Amino acid sequence: MCKEKPTESLLSLVKDNLPVQIQKLTEEKYHIEHHPSEAAIVIRSTTGLPLTLKVTLTSPLTRDEAEKKDGVDSALVKEPSDLLSRQKCLEALASLRHAKWFQARANGLKSCVIVLRILRDLCNRVPTWAPLKGWPLELLCEKAIGTCNRPLGAGEALRRVLECLASGILLPGGPGVHDPCEREPTDALSSVTVPQREAITHSAQHALRLSAFGQIYKVLEMDPLPSNKSFQKYSWSGADKEGRCT
């Protein structure tokens, strides 16, 4: 986080001084690159596991271009010619706000993190659910689980999130998903098209039906729980992913 709007010169300065600071902490070697187009520095480990750390420079001043400084409109103040990408800096600020919000609201909510892991896996496996990946999914889970008047187990919490989606919250005319980290009213799913919203709603309704009939393992693509009857492993693919019964 920078006091002033970050520049390419500052990014290069940080990149040049970072190896010296790392040597004070560890003898391990790291490969350091700076990417002005991304407003970031990328640090990669050279030994052991191939780990990568991306550090983005940003500043609160980037978010509010109209903010006044010493009684003078900031638009009238001459700015450096090598300012880093404003969009990348804004995205970094948003990520910080999201992380703080998650720590305060979702991290301590019973079953929320478990359900998030399940649905993240679903987003990775089923293309229909991919638009929910990331911040929108965190908001949905916190809203659905946090509005219950009692703590929920993982199964109940997952069902409640599916019920929320199946009810049509994403459809046109529905309440949508409000972004609590923005100053102005913002729909966290503004980039999701109407057909995508309808497909997610339809898929959630089908998953809810499977859950009601004790077939949630099809949604999770796992073996069913042991019982007296013999089952084979099912995959929630093909017609099931589209929400049609087979």
TrEMBL record:
One Gene Ontology cellular component annotation held by this UniProt entry: precatalytic spliceosome
Signal peptide region: none
Top-level taxon in the UniProt lineage: Eukaryota
Domain DZF, residue spans: 1-246
Molecular function as annotated in GO: double-stranded RNA binding; single-stranded RNA binding
One Pfam family this sequence matches: DZF_N
Name used for this protein in its record: DZF domain-containing protein
